[in-house]
Amino acid sequence: MSVVIMIAQLLLGLGILVFVHEAGHFVAARIFHIRVPKFYLFFNPGISLMRCKRIQGKWHFKFFAENLPDMEEQKDENGEPVLDENGKKKYKIIDVSALSDDDWRKYPDNTEYGIGWLPLGGYCQIAGMIDETQSVENWLPSLRHGNTVPSRHGSV
User: Fold this and answer.
1) Which of 156, 144, 126, 116 lies closest to 21, judged by CA?
2) How many distinct structural domains can be found in the chain?
3) Residues of the domain holding 141
4) pLDDT digits over 43-61, tens only?
């Protein structure tokens, strides 16, 4: 029984530490008016334990929901993936106008909050931050105009 209590204490302590750290990124981004699409406690590969998002003034919740991509592969006229100069597949942002009204990706300006199932950290996705699945052309439009370089660095 004491092992279970120790594991619970570890998870609680890690959760508090991760939350405070990620909240610092979130608050700094909001102070500088930078969009924050996602704020998660713990990682969520595959599914999220819980997620919520405010859409049109009303909170919506999902439990044990599958993660859907924000990007899709670019295809040529033959249906083959388009490659960049390094041979990596190119991706484009999903067209939100084609999504159904109950798909949360249709409302990218609202922050999605969630709890993942893998207690090894968390993340605060800040608009304009790039990862290995995105190309520069995809993330440039997501920055709000007028944000200076020091303000963006303050949120990171």
Assistant:
1) 156
2) 1
3) 2-155
4) 988 899 999 999 888 999 9
